[in-house]
Amino acid sequence: MQTVSEEQVWEALREIPDPEIPTINVVDLGIIRQVAVADAVIRVEMMPTFVGCPAIDMMRRDIRERLGPFGPVEVVVVYDEPWTTERITAAGRRMLLQAGLAPPPRGDIRLTPVSSQPVPCPYCGSTDTQIENLFGPTPCRSIFYCRACRQPFEQFKAV
Predict the structure, then answer these.
(1) Beta pairing partners, 35
(2) pLDDT above 60: residue 113
């Protein structure tokens, strides 16, 4: 066991992929709210993307496993502040694009992705896209279709 700083904990957390979208890590997805190291105990506060997220237990486990070599780890899931898509970092938005997922629009907080702004295709960049299904493979994503490159893609719903 070694002494660890909060900075080292944050860097270690960046190595943990989101279970549903492994190209983005839990830090850049914005679900890690706070890290504290006190009395040799690491405390991580995690905000799930939505209350019923099925990956909560997997993320808790992954955090404990990754930080375990540093000492005792306490992972607390917090609900007093809701996660929003505004928490996704600029690096996280690039990671989503690399995975073929359109990031949600900034500053356009809605419960659905339907807005007056076109959704750019993550593959070709075209805005000649249309929503195919409001409900994607998870509650936080919708399915779109690009008329230009003829590729379906998903977009995170802005919440």
Answers:
(1) 44
(2) no
Helix axis angle for 6-13 and 56-67, nearest 10°, is 130
Report the topology of domain 6-77: GMP Synthetase; Chain A, domain 3 (3.30.300)
pLDDT at position 116, please?
62
Contacts of 115 (CB under 8 A, 6+ apart): 105, 108, 158
Contact 9, 70 (CB under 8 A): yes
- Is 65 strand, coil or helix? helix
In the chain, where the domains are located:
6-77, 99-156
Q: What is the percent of the chain with per-residue pLDDT over 90, rounded to a whole number?
A: 66
